[in-house]
Specification:
single chain, mainly alpha, 3 helices
Length: about 190
């Protein structure tokens, strides 16, 4: 009787694990979600099959125990005993399968948790990279604005240099003309 209770409790625990894994899989990124959903589906199928086998075995076992207690067919008790042993072996086999499934579910759950952690780390890294790119973009805009100002200043300075050279050339020409005229009037006046 206690073994049946343990089996029922274990089946309930497995169902809880399935529900938790289903929730975890739904929160995974789309790229890896399909793989884990197919695994979870196969685990659920195997779990349902084991649960049906367990129920069938339990029903058969309870029928046989009832028949034995009621004393039906004392001659067939040996065949019933053989059937009970076979059912017990079948139940033990199903228990082993259920335990293996539990271990696989635990491993799948661990993988889902690890995948979620890796996904969170990747998202954190992407967020950091995005901030860096944003800061670089802002600096580039500032540099571009400063280069525009510098270009305008240099253009203004170049114009002033050209204007100053033209003025120096004009002043040099005026001084040269004045010297030539002064020499001309000095020589002519003597």
């Amino acid at each position: 009787m206690t073994r049946r209770r343990v089996m029922c409790q274990q089946i309930n625990i497995e169902k809880d694990f399935m529900e938790q894994m289903d929730l975890e899989v739904r929160e995974l990124p789309i790229q890896s979600r399909a793989m884990y959903q197919s695994r979870l589906k196969s685990y659920k199928g195997e779990m349902d099959k084991l649960e049906k086998d367990f129920k069938r075995s339990r029903i058969a076992y309870s029928d046989e125990v009832r028949n034995e207690l009621l004393g039906e067919d004392a001659g067939s008790s040996e065949s019933q005993l053989i059937k009970l042993r076979e059912e017990r072996a079948h139940l033990l086999d199903n228990t082993e399968k259920l335990e293996r499934s539990s271990r696989r579910l635990d491993a799948g759950y661990q993988i889902a948790v690890e995948t979620e952690q890796v996904g969170q780390e990747i998202l954190a890294n992407l967020h950091t990279d995005r901030e860096k790119i944003q800061r670089s973009r802002d600096r580039l805009r500032e540099t571009d604005a400063n280069l525009g100002k510098s270009s305008r200043i240099l253009t203004g300075m170049l114009r002033r240099i050209i204007q100053n050279r033209v003025l120096v050339f004009i002043l040099g020409a005026i001084i040269l003309i004045t010297i030539i005229l002064a020499i001309y009037f000095n020589v002519r006046g003597h």
